[in-house]
Design goal:
three-stranded antiparallel β-sheet, 225 residues, mainly alpha, 10 helices, single chain, 2 domains, Double Stranded RNA Binding Domain, Ribonuclease iii, N-terminal Endonuclease Domain, Chain A, 11% strand
Length: 225
Amino acid sequence: MKELEEKIGYKFKNEKLLLLALTHSSYANEIKDKSLSNERLEFLGDSVLGIITGEYLFNQYKQFPEGELTKMRAALVCEQSLLLYSKKLGIADFVRLGKGEEQTGGRERPALLADAFEALLAALYLDGELKAVKKFFEPYLEEFAPLAVKGMTFKDYKTILQEVVQKKPGELVEYVIISEQGPDHNKVFVAQVHLNNKILGTGEGKSKKDAEQEAAKVALELLGL
């Protein structure tokens, strides 16, 4: 863990938090202790990521209105961007996986690496508060935010679809996970996007976020966009 701490530039007071952030559910299930999974930290990390990114964009891009800032934030916190961050850090070398997940290539699975990065942000927050997270993550924003300004980051299809729908007052978009199949270490989720309770698109992915993005992409294609 010392090597990762050096990469992060932070020494954990509670090293168990760092270890927990790197522990995938497949490993926790294998040792029959689900409390060791990083899933709860991932949940918190998603919120930490949002507030750090939002504050950075608010302070650095004062010339942009709310709508443009929203697009940029969505691009910078989407799973594809998280995958870029995790690869830049090399987090794949440190995650703890179950044997099945390891054998099926889990160490390169985008959703797993993105989730581990979010869990790491949460661990940093709990151990060193927002100050520690900012020190670690703001260099990533300095590198990738200019790309978001130029529209060169990955498309966030959910945000694009929401903007299209908002042009018509009273329209309501909702995402529903209709199924999940496979073992914990290799699940496939299927999502539907509903427009006023009518199915507009269906997509699948290795995570709920991926499936929802794919459903939104299909919906935009059906709308001719």
